[in-house]
Amino acid sequence: MKNRIKILIKGTVQGVGFRPKIYNLAVSLGINGNVSNTNAGVLIDAEADEKTLKTFIEKIKSEKPEKANITSIETVPQKEKGYKDFKIAKSAAGKEKSLLVTPDLSICNDCQNELFDAANRRHNYPFTTCVNCGPRFSIINKIPYDRKNNSMRHFEQCKACEWEYINPAERRFHSETNSCSICGPEIFLFDKNGKKIENENPLNKTIDLIKKGKIVAIKGIGGFHLVCDAENNSAVKELRKRKGRDKKPFALMSLDIEKIKEYCIVTQKEEALLSSQERPIVLLKRLNKITVSEAVAPGLDSFGVILPYTPLHYLILKQDFLALVATSANKAEDPIVASFREALANLKGIADFYLDHNRDIVNRIDDSIVKVINNKESIIRRARGYVPSPVKLEQELKEVLAVGGELKNTFCLTKGNYAFPSQHIGDLKSFTSLEHFERSIKNFKDLFGIKPKIVAFDMHPEYLSAKYAEKLKGVKKVKVQHHHAHIASCMAENGIQEKVIGVALDGTGYGDDGLIWGCEFLIADYAHFERLGHLKYILLQGGDAAVSEPWRTATSFLYDVYGKGLTKEKKLPFFSFAGRKNIESITGLIDKKVNTIPTSSMGRLFDAVSSILGICHENTYEGEAAMELESIIQENVIEFYDWHPEEEEGVMLLDCSELLRKVIEDLKAGIKVPVIAAKFHNSIAHGISDVAGELRKQTRINKVCLSGGCFQNRYLTEKLTSLLEAENFRVYTHSKVPTNDGGISLGQAMIANAIAK
Predict the structure, then answer these.
(1) pLDDT higher than 90, residue 544
(2) Do domains 381-494+740-756 and 533-732 have the same CATH topology?
(3) 277 exposure class (CB count in 10 Å sphere: 0-12, 13-18, 19+)
(4) For residue 133, what are the β-bridge partners?
(5) Which of 423, 430, 547, 698 satisfies CB 3.0 to 4.6 Å to 365 for a cystine?
(6) Using CA atoms, how far apart are residues 722 and 731, in angstroms rounded to an integer?
(7) CA-to-CA distance for 473 and 457, rounded, in angstroms?
(8) What are phi and psi of 62, to 5 degrees?
């Protein structure tokens, strides 16, 4: 007698070759029935004896596809039906949506081998994929993940591809992106005016154009890249000029690790990240003597480097390029362009040519960026390859929408014990970016069947994300303090439930006193926080102008140190840049309290020191001054400036005027700037460690969570971690969501859920 059971498998189980794996397992064990995709996951209807069914379930767990993630297996006994064989059945919709959608996957080794095999029918085919690789999230319209529900539905398979699709022995058995040069997507080359270039091999012509120094907009998985030869200094400079991007670093793409090692140092951990199927941009220390243009990342000691992740990338890079600039194609503050129509409209005057293809991008998504800090992955930008994979939580949450902040915006939706942080949306400062934000929220709600009853948003009243949340109807609205959200996000991804000492360091966050925070010591859980320490307030003049012009910030900080005597410090490097007249103008406005606001921002302190030392007086992109300050640090300097926290009315304060006096004393004494930069970083780490030690005495809390954009600084994070661990603190940092503002939506969701309870 046979037993029959229905098995519902939930998790990331579609778009990863799960049904073909189930089919082959079932056939090998002599099980009859069927398997299908549903909105809830993969549904198996299986008939066999009890022992065989038990073996079947165990093998499903142990032999699942590499990219599959099983979160639950539910079995329900059924009446015997008398199946005669095992089949892959048509997908069924259904009301429940608990499926985890697969991120886009880089090309696998098998497809890569076929791509360059002259005898293979997919030789040089730029859209070669199989069940183990290719676009997923970027092309999906809705679940279940079937061809009819993604943008490959426009391409009917030829007989050869259809045979692969229905043949259980083939790697492309039920591959929903299966195609070839006969039946699949094609590439097309257009000139700068959008005129199609006929009678040319588009791929070969594109390669030739790049070698001649042209700038080509190339459509990838999640959007267009602007591409040029990274060894062609004129081309890189021209791209900067056309894009109006003075110094912000460009990303590089190279064929393999060996080529990357010609211009960067690559550690074992970094190599693993570069080669992973997520294929992020990895920030690497650059070598000194290289042929890559200095214009790629001016003033920095590192490059953002990525390996190819599509067949098209490989076909181009195989043609003897050391590296290509491959930067997101967009205007400042706008999302990456995802269609040829958008490219023509938005990249006019930037791109010389456009290499387009006719597979639609449904969900636009940038490349992810990661950095190795403390020998572990630290995500700077979470996007392609990672999204929409969830963060698994230690508790079940209500259905919440958290809308994030303004810079590096992401939103987050929660359901059960999963949080779904969105892809990097960007800075919400334009109508186009707001439109992308709103459309992406709708897509996520539809994909995961989430109907939030709670919306969480930043306290800052002028953030577009907050204004969007305030307009929503029929939901409970929860305002969340910015730095509390930072710490809660770090707690959530590390599975922490109890109170922690939270250290939040960044540039700007709206405080609950209406002032600008940025160096905060919080005793926090999800529902509450208490601010028990911060950088002592200084009056910052200029608002947004001070953020973009560190010399203004330096003036504000030094006026706090020297008062009227500041105008006598003519030998300071920033003085000659700013000029006496401008400095007197700023200090006069501070005296009159015109456009000034008290701030405890660590980010602004880094900006000020960068300008004081003559490194960077103007930020042409966010974080430039601080990044250049970190880049010049002299290694193996252990000295630091002795500054200590002071207690005022129960709050620990770090007074940076004491620190700045010592920085300037060294500068006047002729100490080399790289040494001063190292001592400054060391001092920040020691000061924070001292405050944490005092707070532990008060609270007996031994867990420290580090969050905020300043912890993208590898040197500072590693130095501080080592100091805290030497004092037997348990230190927690980010590895699943960004430590910068790209991670706060997760924290907002956690806090809103706790408050709602």
Answers:
(1) no
(2) yes
(3) middle
(4) 130
(5) 423
(6) 9
(7) 14
(8) -85, -25
CB contact at 8 A, 623 and 381: no
389/401 Cα distance (integer angstroms): 16
Angle between helices 602-612 and 550-562 (to 10 degrees): 90
Q: Tell me how far CA of residue 108 lies from CA of 158, 314, 497, 716, in angstroms.
A: 23, 12, 39, 37
Sign (positive/negative) of CA torsion 213, 214, 218, 224? positive
pLDDT at 93 exceeding the cut of 70: no
Residue 99 has pLDDT above 80, yes or no: no
User: Sheet harboring 400-402: ordered strands across?
Assistant: 391-397, 412-421, 400-402, 454-458, 476-480
Paired tokens of 439: 């459309």
Of the candidates 749, 756, 71, 40, the residue with the CA atom closest to the CA atom of residue 419: 749
CA end-to-end span of the chain: 51
Q: At what angle do helices 580-591 and 550-562 cross, to 10 degrees?
A: 60
Q: How far apart are CA 542 and CA 190, in angstroms?
A: 46
- Amino acid 503 reads V
CA–CA gap between residue 708 and residue 534 (Å, rounded): 14
The string over 178-192, giving b where at least 16 C-beta atoms fall within 10 Å of a residue's C-beta and e elsewhere, is: bbbbeebbebebbeb
Question: What CATH number has the domain spanning 381-494+740-756?
Answer: 3.30.420.360
Radius of gyration of the chain (CA): 28
Residue 629 has what pLDDT? 98
Spatial separation of the C-alpha atoms in residues 342 and 224, rounded to whole Å: 10
Architecture of domain 187-357: Alpha-Beta Complex (3.90)
Each as own residue / partner, the long-range contacts of residues 55-62 (CB below 8 Å, 24 or more positions apart, any chain) are 55/29, 56/25, 56/26, 56/29, 56/31, 57/7, 59/25, 59/29, 60/7, 60/9, 60/22, 60/25
Domain boundary assignment for the chain: 3-88, 109-166, 187-357, 381-494+740-756, 533-732
Spatial neighbors of 291 by CB under 8 A, at least 6 apart, are 231, 262, 263, 322
Cα distance between residue 328 and residue 243, in whole Å: 11
Residue 302 carries which side chain, given as an amino acid letter?
S
Of all residues in the chain, the percent with pLDDT exceeding 90 is 90
Structure tokens at 182: 């006969």
Residue 104 token pair: 């886009």
- Paired residues of 522 in beta bridges: 502, 531
Contacts of 305 (CB under 8 A, 6+ apart): 251, 252, 253, 254, 260, 264, 274, 281, 282, 283, 284, 323
Measured distance CA(493)–CA(643) in Å, rounded: 33
CA dihedral 317→319→321→322, nearest 10 degrees, is 80
Beta strand residue intervals within 51-209, DSSP E: 69-78, 86-88, 187-191
Q: What is the reported pLDDT for 240?
A: 96
Backbone φ and ψ for 423, nearest 5 degrees, come out as -65, 160
Distance CA 359, CA 598 (A): 52
Max CA distance (Å), the chain: 97
Q: Say if residue 194's pLDDT is above 80.
A: yes
Give CATH for domain 3-88: 3.30.70.100
The answer to whether the CB of 413 falls within 8 A of the CB of 400 is yes
* 96 pLDDT above the threshold of 70: no
CATH of 533-732, one of 3.40.50.300, 3.30.420.40, 3.40.190.10, 3.40.50.720: 3.30.420.40
Three-class secondary structure assignment of 328-390: ECCCCCCCCCCCHHHHHHHCCCCCCEEEEECCCCCCCCCECEEEEECCEEEEEECCECCCCCC
Between the alpha carbon of residue 282 and those of residues 258, 266, 737, the distances in Å are 15, 10, 15
Q: What is the pTM of this model?
A: 0.95
Q: Output 285 or 68, whichever has higher pLDDT.
A: 285
